[in-house]
Every structure is written in C-alpha cells, then in structure tokens.
Amino acid sequence: MKIGVPKETMPGETRVGLVPETVGRLAKAGNTVVVERGAGAASAFPDDAYEKAGAQIVDNAFDAELVAKVQRPTDAEIDRLRAGTVLIAFLQPLVNTDLARRLAERKVTALSMDAIPRITRAQPMDALSSQATVAGYKAVLLAAAALPKFFPMLTTAAGTIAPAKALVIGAGVAGLQAIATARRLGAVVEAFDTRPVVKEQVQSLGAKFLEIDLGESGAGAGGYA
Predict the structure, then answer these.
(1) Burial 39-53, CB ≥16 within 10 A → b, else e
(2) To the nearest whole number, what is the mean pLDDT of the chain?
(3) How far apart are CA 128 and CA 207, in angstroms?
(4) Catalytic site residue 224?
(5) Catalytic site residue from 56, 123, 130, 217
(6) Which of 49, 87, 120, 215 is a good FRET partner for 165, with 20 to 30 A between their CA atoms?
(7) Confidence band (pLDDT; 50, 70, 90) for 158?
(8) What pLDDT, on a 0 to 100 scale, did the predictor assign at position 114?
C-alpha cells in the first residue's frame, strides 16, 4: 500500500500525521510511504529522518492509497484526494457535516480519529486521550507562566510565600493530567466534576474533590462524561 503524509496547513498546527518511527515500521511491513517535503519540520522531524526510516520525500503526498493527516483537509486538499483514497485524520464529522458530505461525494473513505471508541481493544489508537494528556499538562504550564506568583510554597529570608491555589474543572483525561501537573509544581489543588465516580482518582493525585449537588450526574457508559 502507498501511504502519504502531507504537510499540515492549518495555522498554528505543528504536528504531523506520522513520525519517522512509525514510518519505519510501515516501510518494513512492505508499504511505500511518501512524505511531503518539510511535513515534519515543525515537529522537529527533518526530511532526512524520514528518508532514513524508509520514506520517500515528495512534493505531493495526496497521491496515495491512504493519507494520514492530523487536521481535517481544506477544500483544496480534498480536491487533491483521489477517488477510493482512505483518509485518516481528526475530522469531527458530526460537527463538520459539509466536510463529510464533500468527502463522500469525492468517494473518499474517511476514518476519524476522534470517533475511535475508548475501549480496551482500541487503546493503542486512542489519539484523543493522548492529545488530552498533552493539553492538560500544557495548560498548567501556561497558567504557571501567566500567574504573577509562585506555584509552590517558598520560604525566604523575608518570610514565607503561600502556595498558589488551583481549581481544575473536569476530571477527565486532560483534567487529571492538569491536577497531577499542578500538584508537582507545588500548588494546592481542588477539582470538580459532575461524575462522583472520579472522586477517588482526584484524591489519589493529592487534590481535594469539591462535591456540589447539581441534582444529576454527568457520567455516561463506562464512567465517561
């Protein structure tokens, strides 16, 4: 199979559909992998890293049987997809209905990474949870940089500085990572979630769980929101 990895064009997007390590495994399995020139540069993966992994550097990575992207394709990119191509990306088809319709008209088979169920068998493909982990971690780092005081308690010759107080709303994948990161930075953390079932998880990370009776629970099947 010929697999294409195009360069992301959405402003601010620095990720890439496949990293050299994954490309190497696909190439060893007998697939032909073509990577658009500069596709991994923003993620610190130069073209020669892909070439060493067994990929070919090309100017058009949409000319493939399977195209691996991060963001949904633009209208111009959809026009470059061949009929019968398999597209894998974060598509959010329930929100982007026009996109789903255009891909169907183009006879493209689209697989949306954000629609993969959170079950044991699908864990290796759970890209949504992995990205939520990054978001929770980074959110606290940005908050710490913006806060005009230290996160941890500090004792100086001039006196003691009290630790910062952090409130995390939502204890899903991103929220739990945010709690853990804020605690590691020394903050006093409280968290709230509409699902009482996550109380133990919040407390296990050293945070206080705020219990507010809203008259209903936001828990879904399997305890997910």
Answers:
(1) bbeeeebebebbeeb
(2) 93
(3) 24
(4) yes
(5) 123
(6) 215
(7) confident
(8) 92
The catalytic residue among 79, 82, 130, 224 is: 224
pLDDT in tens, 7-36: 999 999 999 999 999 999 999 999 999 999
- How would CATH label the architecture of 2-115? 3-Layer(aba) Sandwich (3.40)
Burial 127-152 (b: 16+ CB within 10 A, else e): eeeebbbeebbebbeebbeeeeeebe
CA proximity to 186, closest of 132, 149, 225: 149
Catalytic-labelled residue, pool 129, 137, 183, 195: 129
- What is the token pair recorded at 99? 């996109």
Q: Which of 47, 63, 114, 126 is catalytic?
A: 126
Q: Is 4 helix (H, G, I), strand (E, B) or coil?
A: strand
Handedness of CA 178, 184, 185, 187 (dihedral sign): positive
Length of the chain: 225
pLDDT at residue 223 in the model: 47
Quick one: tokens of 107? 């006879």
Cα 34 to Cα 5: distance, rounded to the nearest angstrom: 6
Active site residue 118: yes
CATH of 129-223, one of 3.30.1540.10, 3.40.50.720, 1.20.140.10, 3.30.420.40: 3.40.50.720
Do the domains 129-223 and 2-115 match in fold?
yes
User: Which amino acid would we find at residue 147?
Assistant: L
Out of 25, 56, 118, 204, the active site residue is 118
